[in-house]
Amino acid sequence: MPELPELQALVEGLDAALAGRVVTGARQLQPAMLRTADPPLAALAGRPVTRVWRRGKLVLLEAGGEDPGERDTPSHPTRAQPDQRDTPSQTTRAQPDQRDTPSHPTRAQPDQRDTPSQTTRARPALTLVVHLMQSGRIALAEASTRPGRAVALGIAFAGGQELRIREAATHHRASAHLLTPEGLAAHRPLLALGPEPIGLAPEGWRAALALPPAQLQTALRDGRRVAGVGRCYATEIMWAARLAPLGRTDRLDDDAWARLARSADAVLGQALERARREITTALPNAERRITMAHGHAGEPCPRCAGRLERVSFSEYELVYCPACQTGGRRYADRRMSRLLR
Ligand SMILES: [Zn+2]
């Protein structure tokens, strides 16, 4: 599952590739992906991408309300409005990039900008919020290539490229929401997110995780407490900070919070540097990560050479070093102990 470093590298790459480019069309190939109906996906057509960014594990593609090309002509004080498309007295002509979007057959023309009687009002920007979850992926592809069955949503750009969001799993957990500025401001998954972890001070970590008390490994992966950390980097951060995964967050002392803050910066910062070298405009199916503990159960701890142990939960396992993190204590296998009960 992509986490903060991979997603941050991706949005930086996509922003560099797409900012300023005009959306020529959008299509939905799997209806389950897009969870909003208004505004329609077709409303993205004709809009330039203003930025691609990330918050937690959410990828946000923002498309401006301005007309294509307007960025270069800021001196025009007046611009035709979209709601004038129904005014019968105006001549209407589809713009070249809208030829294939019959839902916008009539829109005010660029040459009406200079008509003094018209007022200026930009269309509200639209933001596509994508949550990839476990098996969703994003890639900028050549539009001429076959999308493949897993592609759920495609956004086409002038120049023949398409941003494709796919969901490989059958349970369709990945989601997309197309939102107006008001919708974005009220979008619960976004509002509920805790602070970003990189650069968060020890006090910020304490405020985010200590209360209500929880197991550290659970709290670290809860995006409402701190955003963007999943199983892999939670494991890595706890190993780096020498913190017990099943320890309670309300019992950590000042030194533990300081270690947590420092380790999160180091682990996520290094992973981000690595991800930037490997990820630009496409997320790989499986992350190529360099990890110290995650995925290394049974191997020697890189710090103390003791054996890394695993504790298994129903859906995942967590790796830790008893010598470094739990004072030598080995956790019972959560799966086994439930079966044996
Ligand atoms: Zn160790």
- CATH classification, class level of the largest domain: Mainly Alpha
Report strand order across the widest sheet: 1-6-7-5
Number of domains: 2
- For the report, how would you describe the main beta sheet? 4 strands, antiparallel
Remind me, CATH topology of the largest domain?
Helicase, Ruva Protein, domain 3
How large, in whole angstroms, is the Cα Rg? 24 Å
Number of strands: 10
CATH architecture of the largest domain: Orthogonal Bundle
Order of helices and strands: HEEEEEEEEHHHHHHEEHH
What proportion strand? 15-25%
What is the general shape?
A: elongated
Helix percent reads 10-25%
Distance between the termini: 32 Å
Please give the count of helices. 9
Mean pLDDT: 85
Summary keywords:
4-stranded antiparallel beta sheet, 9 helices, about 350 residues, alpha+beta, 2 domains, Helicase, Ruva Protein, domain 3, binds zinc ion
What would you note in describing this structure?
- With 341 residues, the chain is α+β, with helices and mostly antiparallel strands.
- The protein has two domains: 4-65 and 124-191, N-terminal domain of MutM-like DNA repair proteins; 202-340, Helicase, Ruva Protein, domain 3, CATH 1.10.8.
- The chain is 25% helix and 17% strand.
- It has nine helices and ten strands.
- The protein has helices at residues 4-18, 181-185, 188-191, 202-209, 216-220, 231-241, 254-278, 322-325, 334-340; strands at 23-28, 49-55, 58-63, 126-131, 136-142, 151-157, 161-167, 175-179, 309-312, 317-320.
- The strands form three sheets. The chain has a four-stranded antiparallel β-sheet, with no helix packed on it.
- β6 (151-157) and β7 form a beta hairpin.
- α1 crosses α7 and α6 crosses α7 (254-278).
- The longest helix has 25 residues, at 254-278.
- The radius of gyration is 24 Å and the shape is elongated.
- The model is unreliable at 68-121 (pLDDT under 50).
- It binds zinc ion (ZN).
- The site of zinc ion has 7 residues, from α8.
